[in-house]
Amino acid sequence: MRLLKYSFIGMLFGIVLVKSQVISWFRIQEMFRLQSFHMYGIIGSAIMTGMVSILLLKKFRIKSFTGDPIIIPVKKFHWGNVAGGLLFGFGWAITGACPGPLFAQIGGGFAIVIFTLLSAIAGTWVYGLLRTKLPH
Amino acid sequence: MHLLDFLKHPWPWWIAGPMIGLTVPALLLAGNKAFGISSSLRHICAACLPAGIPFFQYDWKKESWNLFFAGGIVVGSWIAVQFLSGSQSIPLDAAMVNWLHRQGIHDLSGLCPEDIFSFDKLLSVRGLLFSVVGGFLVGFGTRYAGGCTSGHAIMGISSLQWPSVVATISFMAGGFFMTWIILPHLLKL
């Protein structure tokens, strides 16, 4: 299956999320209470690594393994970036998890988080339902 | 054995952060995929309950790599907990411990407080709020914002896109507001 390579990358990502305690509710609390540098270090160095990687990929015009030139989708600004961002921030502080860690907490054995994930899916569904009525 | 010892300890940020960052080029190289996880929630809606909503009328199978990626996260975190002592307690700042005790959270072991996130507590007001309402906000907010921490904060900022900077500032602002202003009240419930 050609899609299994993505599962492999996801698996490595999941291991890192657990081993660096990004999936810990306590770590997210520490971050928002400014009591630890840990999460800022992780997010900051992840951004720096991603940035340098993309610059190198572009500079050397490296193609993906499928032979296509690398394309990075353009994100257009809309007010949902702000309104949705704030709402997600509320949820992040409450649950201590963004979508990646939700999957990782379930894999890590926190069966209760299945309910959080189902609620997140419901939230996405309700957004789809109300989309045309929301300011963007 | 040194390597295994190392793997079994919690990983410092300067190892974990760059590894997370490398997910960006890994996915681009593997097949031109932009790192992001919250889209998987949309694909699940499109696959399971499109209900005639235009936002869910698209060929989700074309995007199914994202579901395979999310599935990989579940497997990887299982491996980390089973074989790499991933669920050990973390040393918390003393101020944090005091604050949590004052909020009625006494069990500080593991990755999530059992006093909030457990099946016993799920049907309490606090349990419903933290698990169900919190999850809803994560799913609704990320889709409204057009991405989450991975899609905006890491992928978006890495590729120098200013809307992602705006979104990330909003995530943090929402998180700070909730943590400092609202959360202390919610924890008392």
Structure description:
The complex is a heterodimer of chains A (136) and B (189). By secondary structure, chain A is an all-alpha fold. Chain A has six helices and no strands. In chain A, helix 1 crosses helix 5 and helix 5 packs antiparallel against helix 6. Chain A is globular, with a radius of gyration of 18 Å. Chain A starts with a helix and ends in a 6-residue tail after the last helix. Chain B is mainly α. In chain B, 64% of the residues lie in helices and 0% in strands. Chain B starts with a helix and ends with a helix. At the A-B interface, helix 1, helix 2, helix 3, helix 4 and helix 5 of A face helix 2, helix 3, helix 4, helix 5 and helix 6 of B.
Keywords:
heterodimer, A: 136 residues, mainly alpha, globular, B: 189 residues, 64% helix, 0% strand
Helix-strand layout with pairing:
The complex is a heterodimer of chains A (136) and B (189).
Chain A: H1 4-19, H2 25-32, H3 38-59, H4 80-95, H5 99-107, H6 113-130
Chain B: H1 2-8, H2 13-21, H3 23-31, H4 39-48, H5 65-83, H6 94-102, H7 125-145, H8 149-158, H9 162-188
Helix pairs in contact in B: 8-9
Order of helices and strands of chain A: HHHHHH
Class from helix and strand fractions of chain A: mainly alpha
Percent helix range of chain A? 55-70%
Question: What is the helix content of chain B?
Answer: 55-70%
Basic shape of chain B: globular
- Quote the beta fraction of chain A: under 5%
The average pLDDT score of chain A comes to 95
* Helix segment tally of chain A: 6
Report the structural category of chain B.
Answer: mainly alpha
